[in-house]
Write a structure and sequence with these properties.
Elements: H1 2-23, H2 27-42, H3 46-52, E1 53-61, E2 70-71, H4 72-82, E3 83-98, E4 101-114, E5 117-132, E6 135-145
Parallel strand pairs: 1-6
Antiparallel strand pairs: 1-2, 3-4, 4-5, 5-6
Helix pairs in contact: 2-3
Length: 150
């Protein structure tokens, strides 16, 4: 019986070391911020959107290189006045952190209405977050259509 307990100690130690290695990794925090950002959009929470979005935020479509990115001011106007989000979810995601910059690549599904016209959409988003003195802020979102199912 004592032998079994002693075998568990190295496993517990290994798990403890793995957990503390992840504590310095902000990936979980970034994905939580993604959720808070989209929840703020859904609830039309202007104060939270202001906190989470960098002043120079832009939105662009990956397939629309000839179009200028949408600036933060227009994104906020649409989010707060013209868009109704009934639901959203993230699918598979990947977070890469490079110093004070984090990149999120994720499947994003949502539905609602824009100018009272209903929509349901599933896209791939590529979001860039920057760590500032006041915390992480999203600086850009690039949207790409999901590839057709094989």
């Amino acid at each position: 019986m004592k032998t079994g307990i002693f075998h568990l100690i190295p496993l517990a130690l290994l798990l403890s070391v793995a957990a503390s290695a992840r504590e310095g990794d902000p990936s979980g925090e970034i994905m939580a911020l993604e959720g808070r950002w989209m929840t703020a959009m859904q609830h039309r929470d202007a104060a939270q959107l202001e906190r989470l979005m960098a002043p120079d935020f832009t939105l662009a479509g990956a397939a629309e290189l000839s179009r200028e990115p949408i600036p933060r001011s227009l994104w906020l106007l649409n989010a707060l006045r013209n868009l109704r989000v009934d639901g959203f979810s993230f699918g598979k995601s990947r977070v890469a952190v490079h110093g004070n910059v984090a990149q999120v690549q994720a499947e994003f599904s949502w539905h609602g209405a824009f100018h009272r016209e209903a929509f349901t959409d599933k896209v791939i988003v590529l979001d860039l977050w920057e760590r500032t003195a006041t915390g992480w802020r999203v600086t850009s979102r690039l949207i790409a259509e999901t590839p057709p199912a094989k």
